[in-house]
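Ticket #4471: structure output looks truncated?

Reporter: J.K.
Steps to reproduce: submitted the chain below (256 residues) through the standard prediction queue, then opened the result file.
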Amino acid sequence: MDFLYEKKGKVAIFTLNRPESMNALSPNLFKEMHEAFEDFSRDPELWVGILTGAGEKAFCAGADIKEWLPFVRESRGKPWMVPTTPLRGMEITKPLIAAVNGVAMGGGLELVLCCDLRIASEKARFAFPEARLGILPRLGGTTRLPRNIPWCKAAEILFLSKPLDAQEAYRIGLINKVAPPDRVMPFAMEWAEELCNAAPLAVRSIKEAMLRSRGMSLEEALWIENDLGMPLYDTEDYEEGRAAFKEKRPPVFKGK
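Returned output as attached by the reporter:
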């Protein structure tokens, strides 16, 4: 398997599993990624996802040129051949955590940008080398990066193919936390468990509001926020949250 999918209670763990090629993206990995995220989206028992890479060197070094270029040529003008993933075509409203265990370049950095919370190893490195290869990042690099960090820093990374170490990525707000290599996954699991203590329907609605309101005027965004927020008052989770607050106990949410 090029893309591993494991369920631990309410947490799904996704692992790019091609360590011999620095977890580079391949057509088969894309297919397996599509299937895993489809199941994750549908499974009501899964509330949070963690995305990481196998091995100690790389989260994902981008596309596997030997396998990817023939596929690009074959699928050109045939979008139905490209499986939908969080990179393009699949909107995941459940929270995703990136556990960046090493190099994240090109498509690997684009995968990081698909995640809501990001923890990186002290050894992690981030870059978009595409401009020096005569191409551009086509899976969200030019669109998501300027929405995550200041425009001028995004331009510096994209135009100059300038790599960042973990501390610089943290300084500019690209990632949430830098951790020793052996603490990246433990921290990711801690955050996932913390997220599982929140009401899952509320978390998903919050993420959906964030996604849908990007690029809107404030007035339009406030309507989206209201439309997504009002139905939550009719949920069992809201009643449980209120009761737990009054009784001064931890809530037990069911996602209903």
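Triage note (M.O.): checked the attachment and the full token line is present. The chain has a mean pLDDT of 93.
Status: closed, working as intended.
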